[in-house]
Design brief:
Elements lengths: L6 H4 L17 E8 L8 E4 L2 E4 L1 H11 L1 H4 L3 E8 L3 E8 L5 H4 L21 H5 L8 H16 L13 E5 L2 H12 L17
Antiparallel strand pairs: 1-5, 1-6, 2-3, 4-5
Helix pairs in contact: 2-6
Length: 200
């Protein structure tokens, strides 16, 4: 049974700069946060503790879900699209051994934020910009670029923050806490580090 956790008590402070002694091409589980520039709420809104995505937010979710189609040794765990950011766990698993390290969480989630079915393929957007190297930075850069191309059709001024936040997940306990944080993120929106009111 999942229990909500307060993020400030369980999560390490997010940093913009990558961990210098770590090769981000390595197999591993990575918690990432990608934020819209100036914390603009362009993807949807929070209502009764749920994130209700607009068309742009659903497109962002679709791009995220299709990352493994463009990076063959990558799979996804828990993720959520919020009004001005996305949290997600990316698994780089070239040796097909990461599933042994951590128990994969396969709970069925019907959260509105994850209902991102879309009939428009993203293959062309990704294939034009995805280098062969599969480091975490390359994966995120490709995702952000593909989203930006699409979003600017509707919002020409759209930009992401230049950097993204990451945390290397090192054990099962940390994984479960981060999964819970992501899962309950919409319910904690008023206290979220990325809420626009915290940057006034």
């Amino acid at each position: 049974m999942l229990r909500p956790y307060m993020c400030k008590k369980i999560l390490p402070r997010r940093k913009n700069i990558r961990f210098q002694k770590w090769d981000y091409r390595n197999d591993g589980w990575y918690f990432v946060t990608i934020v819209v520039k100036n914390h603009r709420c362009i993807f949807g809104e929070i209502f009764n503790g749920k994130c209700i995505l607009n068309a742009i937010g659903k497109r962002v979710g679709q791009f995220w879900k299709e990352i493994p189609q463009h990076f063959k040794d990558v799979r996804l765990d828990e993720f959520v699209v919020m009004p001005n950011h996305i949290h997600g766990i990316i698994v780089i698993d070239r040796a097909n051994e990461c599933g042994i390290i951590f128990r994969h969480d396969e709970r069925n989630n019907d959260n509105t934020c994850r209902d991102v079915a879309c009939n428009v393929p993203t293959k062309n957007e990704f294939s034009n910009i995805s280098p062969k190297s599969q480091s975490l930075s390359v994966i995120i850069r490709s995702f952000k670029s593909a989203c930006t191309r699409e979003i600017r059709k509707f919002s020409p001024e759209f930009q992401w923050q230049f950097r993204f936040h990451d945390h290397i997940i090192r054990n099962q306990e940390s994984l479960e806490k981060i999964q819970n944080y992501i899962h309950f993120n919409a319910e904690k929106w008023e206290d979220d580090d990325e809420h626009p009111k915290n940057f006034v």
